[in-house]
Amino acid sequence: MHVVLVGPEREENLSLRYLASALRQAGHGVSLARFDSPEHLQSVVRQVGHERPGLVGLSMVFQARGREFYELARALRESGYSGHLTAGGHFATVAYEAILTDLAELDSIVRHEGEATLVELADALQRGAGREDLARIPGMTIRGMGDELLLAPPRPPVENLDTLPLPARDTPPMLHLGVPTAYLVGSRGCYAACDYCCIASWHKAASGPRYRVRSPGNLADEMALLHRERGVRNFVFHDDNFFLPTASANRQRFEDLRAELRKRKLRDIGLVVKLRPNDCDRDNLLVLRDIGLMRVFVGIENARQPQLRSLGRRVSAGQLERCLDLLDDLDIYCAYNLMLFDAYTTLEDIAGNLAFLRRYPQFAFNWCRVEVYAGTELEKRYAQEGRLRGDYLARGYEIEDPRARLMYELLLPAVYGRNFDCEGLANLNIALGYYVRLLKHFHPRQWSPKLASRVQSVVEAVNASAVDLLEQTHVFVRDADLGDQALIGSFGAQLERDALGAGRLLTNRVRDAICEVETLAGAHWPLARRPTLGSADGLRLLGRRGLLAAFAGGLLWLLTGCGHHGRPPVVPPPDPVPPPIVPPPDPVPAPDPPPFAMDRPRPAPRPRSPE
Known about the structure:
By secondary structure, this protein is an alpha/beta fold.
């Protein structure tokens, strides 16, 4: 049977590639259809119409993109597609009942990990199985003849990840500053269970272990294969949590990984991982640095203990500071995200977080509010407290403290572009820091302390500007008459002008620094100005795969695992849509090139950070 898998392709979509590999191993043909934004809808419809697959799978990972996938499913049916249409992913798994109730065009949902389930579904469809037979496949939810849903028992997760075929990789590797780069995972799940995390809720709902790791030897085999066959030297780990629960267990695992890589003569590589602050251990980080670690994305989330408790974060504010101090001491580049606002936030909480930001001016960061994802403990708690607004496709809530609520409402329009555009200032700033570390790691002769100092001054200027805007707003709402709407409106308008003016100047500084680093690396990619929300002189990076793919690994918490939280990172690459993994017998018309248009759902999506 021929299968088309549809999902975002900002980077190597490992979820689809693992599914494609499992289907291919079972003898099925597979092609991928890129669906990064609504602008890709018609190209997906054309591809499906041309290939006429017996099965189409929609990767409904992101809750914020639910309506886009609804529109795609309806468009497929309206175009005449009559094959089996299924969906899977985090959001589809936890909201399967509501989705199948509202989306009549969908035949089924694959719950939880889908490799074995999707293969069995394709096998069954190929032999002409009926709905009742399909409903016996573990992990399936099938729409019956009427409105009833036929729910099969859950499928236990794969306990031995080493038994899975490696993800299909038929397109050229992405380039980070000219360095061939691959995304990979060494584990599935996370040992933690934060209340806001859709990943935790997804694994909790499955039967069996919710956190599993690949063996160091198996992981080293994939890395060596990628290096040998694709020239990959930079490895970005998309693990929801790269670390085990204890420092001693991590030590053994990392030392074993180092030994396995040495056996395969794999040296001079780069490593990018994510970590929780409580996993920050000097000796373990030194082992990883010896392997090639040069960048981590730290799940700071909030610097105030009351807010950490309200998020079910289970780390201490002291651990946050010790982690950043250690990373600074070891000269390991890091970036992080602050979930500055939640339902319980007070101005005192915000003041504490601003003090934290001032203490660490050297680390690029972004901030957002906590978003509520389907199936999470946070959603259940907010529902019990009567806080939820909207529906399962877009949960919202009201911040309880009126002054904190006003602060968020004033800031959102002022910083939306710089915080939440993939090409916004905050994300460019994170990318700039990463670029300099790539230069130092892979092009050391082109790096110099003077260059590093100049770039660091730009990074810190962007950070200071963000904190200035926050503090300016904090002082205003602290003292304002909440009934004076004219004064509040006037301040908001001025805040937007201030943010826009500062953003223009700083974006130019960041752009110039990026150009300098690219030129030194011999990988200069042309830049072109274009308007973006929040910055009339915003950037459009036209290099291979785009600059922002360089740090999307960190943003995928931000935004995949969900993987993942919120909407996916907006990193439109200029290259044409990759060819199908297994081309159909006839050539497929080339899909439209990725558009410049950005998907901007409201409320603002939060950058995804590790558990």
